[in-house]
User: What shape does this take?
Amino acid sequence: MDKKDPFAGLYDKLKASSDWPKIYMFKFICPANNEVIAKIQELFNAKEAQISMRSSRKGNYISFTAKEMMMNPEAVIERYKKAAEIKGVISL
Assistant: This one.
């Protein structure tokens, strides 16, 4: 992976962390906007992923958590790259 890639550090940690495939937990924060929430949900297989959402105290933001079986670190990075294309989404 290119060292200039903002996901290079994460990739290295994922590669070294454990055996693959495994269940990986994704966490995002996004505006409480139905269009943005729908775009995040589209990133995950509704039949295979466990998805949960929680509103912020004032209801302006949504905390989005998804657990899904990922085959390798490359698949995790690809998912984060797709999420980064959605305006307003912050990956945790």
